[in-house]
Amino acid sequence: MNSKINIQKNIIKKSHKRSEEYGIRKNQVFPSKILKGKEVSSNLVINEYLLRIANPFIGIIYKIVANSGFFILLTDYEGCIISSVGDSEIITESERLNMVVGAYMNERSIGTNAMGTAICENQAIQVTASEHFLSAYHRWTCSAAPIHNEEGTIIGTLNLTGESHLVHTHTLGLVIAAVMAIENQIKAEQTQYKLNETLSHMESIIEADPSGILSLDIDGKVKKLNNWACSMLNLEKEKSIDISIDKYIPQWRDILEHFQKGENYLDMETTISLKGIKKSYNLNAYPIVDNKDTIIGIVLSLKGIQKIFNLVNKYAVMSALYTFDDIIGDSTNFIQVIRYAENISNSPSTVLLLGESGTGKELIAQSIHNASYRRNSVFIAVNCGALPKNLIESELFGYAEGAFTGSKKGGHVGKFELANGGTILLDEIGEMPLDLQVTLLRVLQEGYITRIGGNKNIPVDVRIIAATKKNLFEEVKKGTFREDLFYRLSVIPILIPPLRERGNDRISLFNHFLKIKAQKLDKPIPVISQDILNKVIEYNWPGNVRELENFVENIVNFNGKSSFNITNSITGIEYFQNQESCQQKKQINDNANEEIFYMTLEENEKQTIKTCLKHLDGNITKASNKLGICRTTLYSKMKKYNLL
């Protein structure tokens, strides 16, 4: 007890010394600093938060001390009174000393007192009678404690003042208890604020994620969902809380069983039927556990399959890099080909690119894609000759889960699904196995694919560009390529001339590759001898542009010399000997002004029907089957084109 008394005396002694240093006079009656008018209002606005938190507890204290001769003061962190509550008689007495709202009760203003000293010492204190520095305050006993925010900073004080003869240690205890309650309330509100802030962030994240997010309880009832989920499931957010998810995702119980076995449930495909329309989604599920690791719910994430494909396509090398502006060549026959390809770019019809190896079939295919309305969608190139025959079908059309031993869990997405909305290049189409040609023909006719081992028809909107170096007419005659598929693919045939038939394009391309290869190899563009230039012009280039490109890279590596010995001992491939293609080739070479490549789609259709009828000896039934149209439609078109 003596120790506490000594501590109290030392605190009062130090405070009195400070009061003297501040120039406070013992006979002073009123506080040195008092706010007036708008200053009071402004300060109350600044301290609105403290007032709101403290007022309920001040009300509780007042009920305890009512009619006891005590009054309650609440100050801000500087000791300025912001609230005064008590019986009218005692409040009147305090106002005579200007202890009013706006008055500063710190030591600089009125010397030693419970409020000011509590702020200076940062501790609760009771100041009674002569312990006050001012004589006018010797009549009072004051008990005050500083109020801290959650960071521990003083934001105010709570004070209980009464006549000095009413002094009691319980008075200070009551103040301390009230301040603790105020500080706990501040912490609780800050915690709630942070929880609300976290919840707001989480909701923003959930809404920003372009997936349908649903939170379920252990009974499969919806507890939370975002706007994407509402759109996918045709739900209203406000009316969806506590509805059962069974109607939409019945396998949620299986998901729960997976979790209870310690298994995950990721990247599964599910089908949701709404108003008779079935849509496929990618489904991921995550368990919600309590602090005892007990599963109390599930979070489901739904993404449209096509969005998954688009994401895969975006970050995979499945884009068309080249445009018609990237193509080098000024020869008349080649320019006609390029202009023709540009003209048909926006057509949805199938294109068949014919040409020797290295003539730039994929370059033109990419350019067609980039000039079409599909330019912002995916471009996928598949080399039918490079894939093992037993893998082509699964690569093109995918497979369902469990389709065969070793198949990937969840199945595999084929290139046609990935290319939905875009373009697929089937390079080396002449190498496609016969049995797969039937499947491809069905896709062309019906517009959907079926995964291997699956039974679901998946609609696909894909523009097909096929390419080959083979003579498909000969392959049809040999029985290695289906005739009906040939006519389906060659709606728009484009014959790309070999480099040896492109005149001065050899030099244009040679100079172009010199710059490109020098930059790639970080070497200067070499000086080229006339002998090499003559060979470039005279050589047949059986490997076409690709061979020329490799030749130039060799020259740049050897600083203008070459380790290649190019001669015409290897002649160019004798190409497309059938009557139709030879006639087309002859027209391009012998009559550059005849615009064979500017044939309209109607003219193309007429020629296709005419050729089909010719090969089938005028058999209407067979021709309609080969062309994939009914007999009535074929008759109508024959009449239109005067082919009857």
Could you characterize what this model shows?
This protein is α+β, with helices and mostly antiparallel strands and 644 residues long. The chain has four domains: 2-191, Beta-Lactamase; 209-306, PAS domain (Beta-Lactamase), CATH 3.30.450; 316-495, Rossmann fold (3-Layer(aba) Sandwich), CATH 3.40.50.300; 499-557, Helicase, Ruva Protein, domain 3, CATH 1.10.8. It has 25 helices and 17 strands. The strands form four sheets. The chain has a five-stranded antiparallel sheet, sandwiched between helices. Helix 19 packs across helix 21 (544-557) and helix 24 (620-627) packs across helix 25 (631-640). The longest helix is centred in the first third of the chain and has 40 residues, at 169-208. It is elongated and about 125 Å long.
Q: How would you briefly describe this protein structure?
A:
The protein is built from 25 helices and 17 strands. It is an alpha+beta fold.
CATH names the topology of the largest domain as: Beta-Lactamase
Q: Roughly how many Å is the radius of gyration? A: 44 Å
Structural class: alpha+beta
The tally of helices reads 25
Specify the CATH class of the largest domain.
Alpha Beta
Q: Output the strand order for the largest sheet.
A: 2-1-5-4-3
> What number of domains?
4
Query: Tally of extended strands?
Result: 17
User: In percent terms, what proportion of residues is strand?
Assistant: 15-25%
Shape: elongated
Main beta sheet strand tally, sense and closure: 5 strands, antiparallel
Q: Ends: how far apart?
A: 125 Å
| CATH architectural label of the largest domain | 2-Layer Sandwich
Mean pLDDT: 85
